[in-house]
Amino acid sequence: MRRWLWLALGFLFVALGFIGALLPLMPTTIFLILAAACFARSSPRLEAWLLDHPRFGPTLRAWHEDGAIGPRAKFMACGGMAVGYALFWWGVRPSLAADLIVALGLAGCAVFILTRPRPRRI
């Protein structure tokens, strides 16, 4: 039963990842990383399919092997967070407390992303 749950989550994350590849500001890679992790627990064949995918495979393998994020991906992720924060601030006009909570959360995510190593190869 547990295997089917991991498999279903893997397909959900793949769907969200492919939607993110088409929509601006929605992440792609994190959903595919989660999908690969779910498939590792449920279907080695589907995990291999993701890791060998011509478009997403190199990025997923770099994360899987070294926890690495490429410079372009770092730029896109941090840029997306900055645009998302600007839209949040402009659209919601949050209180100072909410503004600081969101800003600190996004800054923490950006620091994590920026401190990951560069891939050895992509």
TrEMBL record:
The keyword Membrane applies. It holds the Pfam family DUF454. PANTHER family: INNER MEMBRANE PROTEIN YBAN (PTHR35813:SF1). The chain crosses the membrane at residues 96-115. GO terms for cellular component: plasma membrane. This is DUF454 domain-containing protein. Keywords: Membrane, Transmembrane, Transmembrane helix.
